[in-house]
Amino acid sequence: MFSSFYRIPHQKLNMGLSSQLFIIPLLFGVTVFCQYEIDDFEDEYENEIDHEYPSIFHHIPGVEYAFPYFNTPTECAKECFCPPTFPIAMYCDHRKLQKIPSIPSHIQQLYLQYNDIEAVHLESFVNATALKEINLSHNKIKSDMIDAGVFVKLSNLVQLHLQYNRLEEIPFPLPKSLEHLILGFNQISSLHSKAIEGLANLTMLDLCNNYLEDSQFKGIQFSNMKNLMQLNLCSNRLQSMPPELPSSLMYLSLENNSVSFIPDNYFQKLPKLLALRMSHNNLQEVPHNAFNISSLVELNLGHNKLKHAFYIPRSLQHLYIEDNEIEVMNITLMCPSIDPLNFSHLTYIRVDRNKLTAPISTYAFFCFPHIQSIYYGEQKISTNQRTQLRTPVFRRYLTPEEYEEAEDGNENEDQDHDHDLRGREDDDYFDPYLY
Ligand SMILES: *[C@@H]1O[C@H](CO)[C@@H](O)[C@H](O)[C@H]1NC(C)=O
Ligand SMILES: *[C@@H]1O[C@H](CO)[C@@H](O)[C@H](O)[C@H]1NC(C)=O
Ligand SMILES: *[C@@H]1O[C@H](CO)[C@@H](O)[C@H](O)[C@H]1NC(C)=O
Ligand SMILES: *[C@@H]1O[C@H](CO)[C@@H](O)[C@H](O)[C@H]1NC(C)=O
Ligand SMILES: *[C@@H]1O[C@H](CO)[C@@H](O)[C@H](O)[C@H]1NC(C)=O
Ligand SMILES: *[C@@H]1O[C@H](CO)[C@@H](O)[C@H](O)[C@H]1NC(C)=O
Ligand SMILES: *[C@@H]1O[C@H](CO)[C@@H](O)[C@H](O)[C@H]1NC(C)=O
Description:
- By secondary structure, this protein is mostly loops.
- It has eight helices and 14 strands.
- It has a domain at 267-366.
- The chain has helices at 10-17, 23-33, 122-125, 193-197, 331-334, 364-367, 400-408, 413-425, and strands at residues 89-91, 109-111, 133-135, 159-161, 180-182, 204-206, 230-232, 251-253, 275-277, 298-300, 318-320, 348-350, 373-375, 393-395.
- InterPro entries: Leu-rich_rpt, Leu-rich_rpt_typical-subtyp, LRR_dom_sf, LRRNT, SLRP.
């Protein structure tokens, strides 16, 4: 399974704890979940792919749902279902609908995914001013079939899901209340700066699997989106890093583009970045200190063409650099100095399918004392070469205290670990919509 960013509902957070990478959801739980419970960052190595459409989450955490008093709380479009116990939601999904039904004025959550809807007309929404969440994913909506201004009138709208449609551009205008805008798997090839710049409350923008090129990012002031925490641009046609990202960003997904270089000091403008996913690009060289970001926890640069290692920030816990061209894991570059009062947090390195002929120097364990495993797997060197790496997986023997700590939140470590490695073998699928 390919990587993705997504929200883990509460019950899934616990499952995340039992995986090799439990630290990420955990960390996120501590630093972010409290203030902002909507997004989470998927533990991509968890085998949750068959969980693609988790049961509907009846409540957006952090969003207050008022239960107004109605005379007829059962008012509901005849095509749909409004649960008597949860009358603010209207379920119209999987019904082969071609038209959006009229939405009663008390409805706050509207589920229209998996239908044959081609158009979004104003009249369906005239009374629907209470809407907070609309799921129109998996329909057949084209940009020119969306009535002008239909969404902007919904001044309470917080989440808009339009993934898997036929949009060619971002709907415009959108209400400034919007926090989640999910537009993946469309045919979007143009970005109008006006469409997104004003969305100051937006925390999550997903544009993965569209047709975006570098030129569309010229003049877009992403930095106006002062609350943006997650930007997904995977599987587009980018050749450069997107410019002008807001300093609030914590998750950046750029997998499966054609980015070939990272400008000097690019990440200095992103001091909160926790996770960077750039696997399946064309990176050959990165500035050796490119990732000198004190917040970075996860770095995925697998499936590029990197020849050299680079500086590892202290905060980093998981490093994925498999399928590159690295011949030597130069520890002097990765760890130019050791601060005995402030050790690196690195626990896991995945470095299979490179050109290593020797394991990483043992000096590494002074610099990275928390290393638990290094996955060397197979290296891309001919089998008759003498210096074959013998150990596919290095596992450090943990001290009893560490072992206990790891066991506590991580009951099936070995099992999950092996599974995580296996999972990565056929990992080439990106689905950022697992929330
Ligand atoms: C919206 O529909 C998608 C299916 O495309 C589903 O995965 C997702 O959970 C739905 N979102 C919400 C918030 O219900
Ligand atoms: C909007 O509400 C008014 C007043 O309740 C009602 O007469 C009208 O039919 C509603 N329109 C739609 C499209 O639901
Ligand atoms: C933006 O978010 C803030 C804080 O949650 C809220 O007070 C404000 O009303 C939101 N803005 C809009 C336009 O909804
Ligand atoms: C990579 O992106 C291309 C389009 O740019 C898409 O066709 C392909 O499915 C993507 N691959 C993965 C593994 O997501
Ligand atoms: C990382 O950045 C800090 C300041 O932000 C600087 O002191 C340090 O030398 C840098 N390290 C490397 C390896 O560039
Ligand atoms: C490792 O990197 C340092 C600093 O760039 C360099 O001086 C040294 O020659 C490199 N060592 C190897 C084995 O490549
Ligand atoms: C440890 O290093 C980080 C980042 O390099 C720094 O922000 C922090 O203040 C350091 N802590 C101590 C105790 O030196």
